[in-house]
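Board notes (copied after class):
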Amino acid sequence: MSRYDELMAFRFPEIVQDYGARETILYALGVGAGDPPDDPWELRHVYEDGLMALPTMAVVLAYPGNWYRTLSPGLDDTLIVHASERFELHRPLPVAATLVATPRIVAIYDKGVGRGALVVSERVIADRSTGEALATVTQTAFCRGDGGLGGPVIAPPKPHHLPDRNPDTTVDMPTSSRSALIYRLSGDDNPLHVDPEFARAAGFPKPILHGLATYGHVGRAISKALRGDSSVSIKTMDCRFTAPVFPGDVLSISLWRDDNVVSFRAKVGERVVVDNGLATLA
């Protein structure tokens, strides 16, 4: 059996998660919510009175964490970076629930020996008591040390093409120097985001911010830009992570809105860190 076949047959354990207002607030704080604390829109994501879950919280629910290391699937976890993320909400997220999901590997796009491979995993997150699906989350990891797995050579889907016009708005979204330290408490304890020696061994000068923490900051920027239109909220969100973000960086997020579609890109200075972004609204 090839390594490709072994990965496609890999079985995840079922994940059951109980969460409540505390976890909902902790996630929001990890993606920068509550700043400024006297902003009513920010406050409703970090205060129990009238608390609302951010749509992007879906990505940490029933989350397998750093499964590339903890579940030993046979991938070199020291050379793995987050390539892209997508979620689709099937209904608004509750601020407290008991959830269940069983992730699975759904695709592998092998770039060849010495070039790495994209490994795509997916999980459908459901309410444990009713079986009702809340969200589907799809994550793509770039496994830089795992090309040449012996499977078919298939090109990955083409990314979303951004509009050929100037953005409709640009939002500056700061990250805290402590963002990674807070965000990791929502389930991703990869040492790449906290351990300087581990980060250097992986080729980075210092710990980098979680891709999903960046993702959450961008999601906040989109939601905040829409707050004048209470009839819509984010239903799906998809993007590629193209360069590392370091805690303390300021994200410059460009947004293009076409009816119920929002395209987006984020930069740090002149460096594009999130690209080919596509969010749909409901």
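Comment from the instructor: The first helix runs from residue 3 to 8. The helical segments are 3-8, 21-30, 40-43, 67-70, 179-183, 196-201, 211-225.
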